[in-house]
Amino acid sequence: MRDVIEVVGDDECREGVLVDEVALGSVPDKAGLQVGDELIGWRREPSPPANPQAAFGVFDTPFDWMWLEVEQAHRGTVVLEVERRGLPLEIQLKTGEWNVHFNAERRS
After folding, report:
1. Positive or negative CA dihedral for 16, 9, 91, 99?
2. Are strands 38-44 and 55-58 parallel, antiparallel or unpaired?
3. Which pTM was predicted?
4. Do 4 and 99 form a contact (C-beta atoms < 8 A)?
5. 46 HSE (CA, 13 A, CB side)
6. Closest CA to 47 of 80, 79, 76, 78
7. 17-35 confidence digits (pLDDT tens)
8. In the chain, what are the domain boundaries?
9. CATH for 5-102 (2.60.40.1910, 3.40.50.2300, 3.40.50.300, 2.30.42.10)
10. Each residue of 64-83: pLDDT tens digit?
11. Which residues pair with 56 in a beta bridge?
12. Residues 6+ apart with CB under 8 A from 33
């Protein structure tokens, strides 16, 4: 079974994308990511020798999640900066595949 997470862009003109669906048993599910969480940013600590420098970024669109999955998921644990019900939260995603699905429609 593929790990699936569905994310839609936030209607407000600010950073972040809203989690619309998290597949049961997926890496994000096991880490605690929930429907309704807003993805704000991410960071990855250095993991030498292959990845000697830290990396970080923000979520402006669902495509930022796709880039993160392709470029960073295999390099080490990624810490997501999330907002849940107005409160900041950090979620650690372990190395591995985070197959994702995006809803192209924006919320109304």
Report:
1. negative
2. antiparallel
3. 0.79
4. yes
5. 4
6. 76
7. 988 888 888 889 899 999 8
8. 5-102
9. 2.30.42.10
10. 998 999 999 889 999 999 99
11. 43
12. 5, 19, 22, 80, 82, 91, 93
